[in-house]
């Protein structure tokens, strides 16, 4: 168990306020989900930087589309920002391109919101493709770093390499702006060597070599400020089936290091998650009160990876598909109407918010063919 003893550095209590003040002016804006109504009514402005957020939902509920809108918001708001997209399956990059095109076309019509990355003005369904938009999209896609992983050690190694890159770029940028003054000590000596870079050792993976000359600050080495993992359940679920105890221990260690990196470098981290219990509406199954996570009783599903995982993240968001109206609900759930078509809407719901008051808020929305997210007024 000694190899699981790697912990994040222990900060001195007297330096916490100093750290916050020094990084306050560096904080990016909130990342928009692409819908003003959802941002303001549900998310209090958008997804926060410096926090780990998980979005769980069944296939087709809009998880990937929501993640791509966060990427678009980040790249539009930060002209030099990068995104680390860690994918466990083939990422639908064509959809990401379409979302970027739509967002840029909207911002060209409404430049007042371009710097914030928000989309507030409804445009027609026809997007005008101009050479300038396509050039911007190509430039943005170059700032998306995609890593394919197939198992949990691969996920940990990708995170470790990303953390090492961010730390190195941060050091280069700090030295280029520095005055040569010695920085104040901010951690206890015994914990200085424990960092997120040690994560592969926890998972018995090979640690990347760090020897060699320091990197030079170039456009390709600018620190990324957003991490997207799609889908964490694919790599963690198989590990859990082998050993629940060991799986939870490794997952907790991984999340501790991810939290440390996210907060230390003020990154917007999003973990996409699957759901379980989609087909538990049988009369032979009696749900316990703690099995119901959604405010909607007709939604039997709940986030995968168990209740333990919800305590390892800062914000937990749940996506579901529901009938749009009462008539649609009668068709969907009525025995006499089986086989008939009905209209659905997607619902975004905040299950947990550790540092705010968003818990329990929800809003219906639709995902259009262009990838746009539209809030729905019921």
Structural commentary:
The protein has 378 residues and is α/β, with parallel strands linked by helices. It is built from 11 helices and 11 strands. It has helices spanning 16-24, 36-41, 63-77, 93-109, 131-142, 152-177, 199-202, 232-242, 244-264, 306-310, 326-333; strands at 52-57, 83-87, 144-148, 226-230, 268-273, 275-276, 302-303, 315-323, 344-353, 362-367, 373-375. The strands form 2 sheets. Strands 3-2-4-5-1-8-9-10-11 form a 9-stranded mixed β-sheet, sandwiched between helices. Strand 10 and strand 11 form a beta hairpin. Helix 8 (232-242) runs antiparallel to helix 9. The longest helix is centred in the middle third of the chain and has 26 residues, at 152-177. It is globular and about 65 Å long. The N and C termini lie far apart (54 Å).
Defining key terms:
378 residues, alpha/beta, nine-stranded mixed β-sheet, two-stranded antiparallel ribbon, 11 helices, 11 strands, globular
